[in-house]
Prior knowledge:
By secondary structure, the protein is an alpha+beta fold. The protein has one domain (2-85): Ubiquitin-like (UB roll) (Roll), CATH 3.10.20.30. The chain is built from two helices and five strands, in the order ββααβββ. Strands 2-1-5-3-4 form a five-stranded mixed beta sheet, covered by helices on one side.
Amino acid sequence: MAHIRIPAPLRKLTNDQEIVSSDAPTLKQAIDALDTQYPGLRERLCDEAGQIRRFVNIYVNGEDVRFLDNVNTRLTDKDEVSIVPAVAGG
Length: 90
């Protein structure tokens, strides 16, 4: 089961849980399943086309999914998924 780290700004959607789990085989399916359990999560992470929003970075075991298979990145047991909102600076 993959463990998904939820950033502080999104924890209000997961009842303040920092880590949630998913046994979905791909990142997209994990996001869809989590959105069923925690409504509103998908729209914060993905755009209307189902792709990861530009200001959201998602890593699987430290690798940016944009350099893997994006939302179709395969997940396996013990994978660590980190959601990291981009931080704007000035």
